[in-house]
Amino acid sequence: MALLGFLYFFIGSRFDNSFNIVWLSALLAFFVNIPPKVKVSDKKEINDIINKMYDEMGIRKGRLKYRLGLISYLVGGILGYILFYSKVVVIG
């Protein structure tokens, strides 16, 4: 996922497009994939359903892996931004 976020900025930097399109779409992709908040009364039931879903797919610790994937996408995007869109500033 980190590589995906990094490659997104790499590919975007190779085209003559607006920088705003690249970072806004990357930010939108991140926020759209954050799970919605649930009511406290329904939280245990929903967590059990999610855990069963991951178990049926054969993924251990699926919720943790999902969150780590989102964080790594964000980190890869930040690194891609720094490498491909930032400018070196020398003071002196």
Low-confidence stretches: none
Helix content estimate = over 70%
Strand content: under 5%
Please give the alpha-carbon distance between the first and last residues. Answer: 38 Å
What is the arithmetic mean of pLDDT?
Answer: 82
Instruction: Specify the overall morphology.
Output: elongated
| Integer count of domains | 1
| Order of SSEs | HHHH
Structural class: mainly alpha
- Number of helices, counting only DSSP H or I runs of 4 residues or more: 4
Main traits of this protein?
92 residues; mainly alpha; 0% strand; elongated
Describe this structure in words.
- With 92 residues, the chain is mainly alpha-helical.
- The protein has one domain (2-85).
- Helices cover 72% and strands 0% of the residues.
- The protein has helices at 2-14, 19-32, 43-57, 62-85.
- It is elongated.
- It starts with a helix and ends in a 7-residue tail after the last helix.
Report a brief summary of the structure.
The protein is mainly alpha-helical and 92 residues long. The chain has 4 helices and no strands.
